[in-house]
Amino acid sequence: MLIKTVRGFEPLFGKGCYFAENATLVGDVVMGKNCSVWFQAVIRGDVNSIRIGDQVNIQDGAVIHATFGKSFTVLEDRVSIGHNAIVHGAHICEGALIGMSSVVMDNVVVGAGAVVAAGAVVLEGTQIPPGMLYAGVPAKQRGEVRADLADHLSATADRYVEYADWFRGSEVWLSLS
After folding, report:
1. Which helix (H) or strand (E) holds 151?
2. What CA–CA distance (Å, rounded) separates 9 from 22?
3. Per-residue pLDDT reduced to its tens digit, 95-150
């Protein structure tokens, strides 16, 4: 794992966090407990702050960043960021899922329990209400998240803590706070 201090900011994270060997954390990043950052994921707090709650999973190849002087990033508790997704200067509320290869731009707010579908592009400033499904390019509201999908998503944060446990001893487990 690569951890870099930038502009005097050192990444901080809580107990029980898992980081794959080639995950990257840079700069002004503060992460809660029991999070996982998977292979080739990058959390780059060099130009603005990134705040991450508890039990957040940032899957393989995802990029979390922001814009200098314009936007910072917040991932609340139990958020799932899918493989190769980009979250850039957005606020992702509790229990939301950002699908694989989707892009979420500056000053977007994704409401609690909402879903951004795989491959979607959420344009700057979009406000996604809680429990809604957004899909497409550009992303548009496609209805409410079905109850069965909501239950599945709620369990995702727990499953990723379990998946991370499979790697205990073979990868990097850290806690600075």
Report:
1. helix 147-166
2. 20
3. 999 999 999 999 999 999 999 999 999 999 999 999 999 999 999 999 999 998 88
Structure tokens at 87: 């979250």
DSSP code of residue 78: T
Rounded to whole angstroms, how far apart are CA atoms 9 and 30?
10
Amino acid in position 134 = Y
> How far apart (Å, rounded) are the C-alpha atoms in residues 172 and 88?
26
- pTM for the whole thing? 0.93
Q: How far apart are CA 88 and CA 64, in angstroms?
A: 6
Residues 56-109: tens digit of each pLDDT: 999 999 999 999 999 999 999 999 999 999 999 999 999 999 999 999 999 999
CA distance 90 to 131: 17
CA dist., res. 120 & res. 127, Å (int): 14
Distance CA 137, CA 103 (A): 10
What CA–CA distance (Å, rounded) separates 41 from 142? 29
